[in-house]
Amino acid sequence: MPWLQRSTLGLIAAGLTLGLFLSPPDYQQGDSVRIMYVHVPAAWMALFCYTAMAGASAAALVWRHALAHVAARATAPIGASFTFIALASGSLWGKPMWGTWWVWDARLTSMLVLFFLYLGYIVLAGAFDDRERAQKSAAVLAIVGFVNVPIIKFSVDWWNTLHQPASVLKIDGPSIDPSMLAPLLLMAIGFATYYFWVLAIRMQDEIMAGKIRALRLRRAESEAGDRSS
Questions:
Q1: How deeply is 207 buried, as exposed, middle or buried, from its count of CB atoms within 10 A (0-12, 13-18, 19+)?
Q2: Could you tell me if 53 and 82 are in contact, meaning their C-beta atoms sit under 8 angstroms apart?
Q3: Which of 14, 105, 126, 129 is most exposed, with minimal Cβ within 10 Å?
Q4: Hey, which of 132-136, 168-172, 174-178 has the most confident mean pLDDT?
Q5: For the chain, domain boundaries
Q6: Nearest 5°: phi and psi at 80?
């Protein structure tokens, strides 16, 4: 975790410095393009986190690995935060570019659905007193909701949206200038290391909380047995 922490802080600091102060303004968007250095990596991580959450949920249901449920639960709030940042920064970017804070196009609507899927998972994971039932219900929602991830990814290709097509992850190479691509990638890697850093912290806390619950349960059962005898 210390290495992840230092990597996160260094990468994000370098990415913000390059993106906000050293990269050139866009010839059409001007300085408002600098929102891209937060918006785009946050959107990428929103999809990555949901993919990780759905994969962990599938592993938990198929192989019944205890840590898989822990990883999925730990991922959900992080992914929801990235999704919120993507939606909020996209709204700030859209106002000067499109003249409005929000439009119901395919990309924006499917990203909003992703945010609600994260919230639904978080609510379901704590909705039942039976912990196993709550975990299974939340895992099923995560797996079913994964269908929204390719919809978000390919929405600009399948429907007429205000979003531009992919300019970084392309078969023939990025179409973005290296002076803008460098801070964008630094921020993306920094957001990824942040995810793994916080994921490790949350999983560690969840495991410790589970041990405490087990100790309390055994103590309560032992005291109940002593009273009955």
A1: middle
A2: no
A3: 129
A4: 132-136
A5: 2-162+181-228
A6: -65, -40
